[in-house]
Amino acid sequence: MAVLSKTTIAHLAEHLENAELQAFDVTKITDDYPDMDWEDAYDIQYEIRRRKEARGHQTIGLKMGLTSYAKMKQMGVDVPVYAFLSDYFSVPDGGEINMAALIHPKVEAEIAIITNQPLHGPGCTVAQVLAATEAVVPAVEVIDSRYRDFKFDLKSVVADNASSARFVTGGKLKRADQVDMKTLGVVMEINGRVVATGAGAAVLGHPAASVAMLANMLAERGEHIPAGTFIMTGGITAAVEVKAGDSVRVRYQDLGEVSIRFV
Ligand code: OOG
Ligand code: MG
């Protein structure tokens, strides 16, 4: 049951997208709309997606967020969320990210998958996700909440496309039966110093559980995960702040490494 009017949804989508595109921070929207509900929050996110697609941007994937205990604890929340990835979020491996286009970016080490069959909820399971996994891919996400000081509640962050800003994939691609996503280790380094470590199990016990949850959450809106979808399963460790000049490298067990530099 949505609470906000269509006009308010459109206004808030424009407000948050402007903050993203012009790189300025805003106060969290629940301060002004304390009664907004989950459906409103996703309606705003879908309206931002519609605006980008109307301008010719393709939606090239989906992501889950707040799927690890480290992330939930860092952000003070307890339920995962999902969001979309637009074509211009993608940065090549080894590439540069311009700090001027972002507000206060942080980096996250993630495991991504690409599906080869549609996944429908409710009731989607880890086994179904594994059977529908074409490839497991290493990914680094750059999140950049549009909210001041990265402070938000869940509805505000859902509306803000779960802080999505940039992402990088690289390394090696493996089939689902060639890697154990649960024990797969990751090591994040900034300027050669290890800043975070973890394993796939940090993400809801198994990264595939994150994809199953995505299918089940999408079902609430009458949607599913189409075959061929690229999905980032969520940060394994807490997100790490970066500044201009930082080189970020994440090494993945069996999957090679991904790197980016902030300028
Ligand atoms: C929300 C986005 C979280 C993840 O991987 O957990 C996310 C945030 O923490 O700003 O992308
Ligand atoms: Mg993430």
What's this, in brief?
25% of the residues lie in helices and 29% in strands. With 263 residues, the protein is α+β, with helices and mostly antiparallel strands. Strands 1, 2, 3, 5, 6, 7, 10 and 11 form an 8-stranded mixed β-sheet that branches. It has a 5-stranded mixed β-sheet with strand order 4-13-12-8-9, with no helix packed on it.
Please describe what this structure looks like.
This protein has 6 helices and 13 strands. With 263 residues, it is α+β, with helices and mostly antiparallel strands. Strands 1, 2, 3, 5, 6, 7, 10 and 11 form an 8-stranded mixed sheet that branches. Strands 4-13-12-8-9 form a 5-stranded mixed sheet, with no helix packed on it. It is globular, with a radius of gyration of 17 Å. The model has no long low-confidence stretch (mean pLDDT 97). It is 25% helix and 29% strand. Strand 12 (247-252) and strand 13 (256-262) form a beta hairpin. Helix 1 (6-22) packs across helix 2 (38-54). Magnesium ion (MG) is lined by residues 63, 65, 108, 110, 141, 143, 232, 234-235.
Give the SSE layout.
Blueprint: H1 6-22, H2 38-54, E1 59-65, H3 69-75, E2 81-86, E3 90-91, E4 96-97, E5 106-115, H4 126-131, E6 133-143, H5 154-159, E7 164-169, E8 185-190, E9 193-199, H6 207-219, E10 230-232, E11 240-241, E12 247-252, E13 256-262
Parallel strand pairs: 1-10, 3-7, 4-13
Antiparallel strand pairs: 1-2, 5-6, 5-10, 5-11, 6-7, 8-9, 8-12, 12-13
The protein binds 2-oxoadipic acid and magnesium ion.
2-oxoadipic acid is lined by residues 65-67, 71, 75, 108, 141, 143, 145, 157, 162-163, 234-235, 239.
Domain Fumarylacetoacetase-like C-terminal: 95-261
Organism: Thiothrix eikelboomii
Pfam family, one: FAA_hydrolase
